[in-house]
Design a protein that fits this description.
Elements (H helix, E strand, L loop, with lengths): L16 E3 L3 E4 L9 E6 L5 E3 L6 H5 L6 E8 L8 E6 L4 E6 L5 E7 L2 E8 L9 E8 L6 E6 L2 E3 L1 E4 L15 E3 L1 E2 L3 E2 L1 E10 L5 H6 L20 E5 L18
Length: about 250
């Protein structure tokens, strides 16, 4: 991995979902929609999630909040040492990345002080679709985070104790996919990005991988459609903007 302290920050774009230089492309490997995904080529592409009605990070990641974030991802080449999502500066940020071993890492830092950091044994491989669900439970005195890959919970490899008195919404109001500090880009395919305002339990989190439909309706062990905050399915087929399919107009 590399440090971020010496990378300058450019002004971020503001859009519902914007892909710079990229596109929404046909993709028959997607486990749910079977149609399209967002394609980032690793050269000049990034995708920014932003809502004018209720920004993503403050709505979900405030102090003591519980939330769930899910996405599908495929790395065309190596899955190791890749930034998936980033927002903020070199000292205050939210950073979701893979380690040199392909393990998923989620960290939140404010003023160079770590407010949360955890790594899970995902061992992502290249050219493979993964359904990922990260669950954050802020109901206790310390955050309790879990990760599910393709419906199964994976264990933590690096875990600390972090107080729920700390906000995890550091670095701004939006998350940028596929780029670190608007300076280094990463190739990946993304699909079915969704967020909930609750910590999904194991049954709900596992059910998402095999739901077979958009999570806007309850089915089987999935019972949390009423708490769905936002959903981006990338079913537009082409272009640079995707719509929120949750019914919340984000």
């Amino acid at each position: 991995m590399f440090g971020i302290a010496n990378i300058s920050v450019a002004n971020p774009i503001s859009a519902a979902i914007a892909v710079q230089g990229g596109n929404l492309q046909a993709n028959l490997s997607d486990s749910q929609s079977l149609k399209y995904s967002a394609s980032l080529d690793g050269t000049d592409d990034k995708m920014t999630m932003f809502s004018s009605t209720a920004n993503f990070t403050n709505a979900l990641m405030g102090a003591g909040n519980s939330w769930t974030f899910a996405f599908q991802i495929r790395f065309p080449s190596s899955a190791n040492s890749k930034t998936i999502m980033f927002q903020g500066s070199s000292t205050t940020y939210v950073w979701v990345q893979t380690t040199s071993a392909g393990d998923l890492s989620w960290s939140s830092v404010s003023g160079s002080v770590t407010k949360f950091a955890e790594t899970w044994d995902t061992n992502f491989a290249a050219d493979t679709w993964y359904h990922v669900v990260v669950v954050m439970d802020g109901s206790g005195s310390n955050y309790d985070a879990k990760c599910y890959v393709n419906g199964s919970e994976v264990s933590s490899t690096v875990q600390g104790t972090y107080s729920t008195s700390s906000s995890l919404a550091n670095g701004g109001t939006k998350l940028s996919f596929g780029v670190l500090l608007n300076a280094i880009f990463y190739a990946m395919l993304l699909d079915e990005i969704a967020a909930w305002t609750v910590a999904l339990d194991a049954n709900n989190a596992s059910a998402l991988a095999n739901l077979g439909q958009a999570p806007t309706e309850n089915k089987g062990n999935y019972t949390q459609s009423s708490n769905l905050w936002g959903l981006y399915r990338f079913e537009e087929g082409q272009g640079t903007t995707a719509s929120d399919s949750s019914g919340n107009g984000r």
